[in-house]
Amino acid sequence: MSEPHDPPVWLPHVVAAAIVERDGKFLLVEEETADGMRLNQPAGHWERNETLLQAVVREALEETAHHVEPVALLGAYSTLNPARSITYLRFAYVCKVVRFDPDYRLDHGIVRAVWLTPDEIAASPIRHRSPLVMRCVQDYLSGRRFPLDFVVHS
Questions:
Q1: Sorting pLDDT into bands at 50, 70 and 90, what band is 78?
Q2: Strand (E) or helix (H) holding 98
């Protein structure tokens, strides 16, 4: 039982993000947020009864209409949204596009999927959903990769 002076329970929000590059451009989404229109990699919350790999495939489809296949773990990242006092733990996966479904209805709040160069992404940091947007692009370009079995589900 918690006492009145105990701090509230801290639970980070776990998300899976797809880092998808094709012909020098990265797949991003423009999405409506509480802070206005933002750019982000296709990403979303990890749901009960799925693996992180299943989560990244699902989120990429729901937000971009692209079916993707994870090929490597880019990394695990944490960031704090101080305005909302939420810590996000992001598992970013390097993915390749398997196919595109032009008739797929995108998630609520997603305005569109866009392909942008690293320079185009870097040119608008104020529009990034978090500092992790550019960090993941930089890590991808540096060649950072971990095997998919780096994260074990049991």
A1: very high
A2: strand 86-100
- Retrieve residue 115's tokens: 């392909």
Which alpha helices (DSSP H) does 65-110 contain, by range? none
Q: In the prediction, which pLDDT does 38 show?
A: 96
Domains, the chain, ranges and CATH? 14-99+109-149 (3.90.79.10)
Between the CA atoms of 63, 82, 48 and 99, what dihedral angle is there, to the nearest 10 degrees? 20
CA quadruple 118, 20, 56, 97: dihedral, nearest 10: 160
Residues 49-75 have pLDDT tens digits of 999 999 999 999 999 999 999 999 999
The closest of 9, 46, 128 to 79, measured between CA atoms, is 128
| Residue 28 DSSP SS3 | strand
Residues 6+ away with beta carbon under 8 Å from 31:
37, 38, 39, 40, 63, 109, 110, 111, 129
Instruction: Check whether 4 has a pLDDT greater than 70.
Output: no
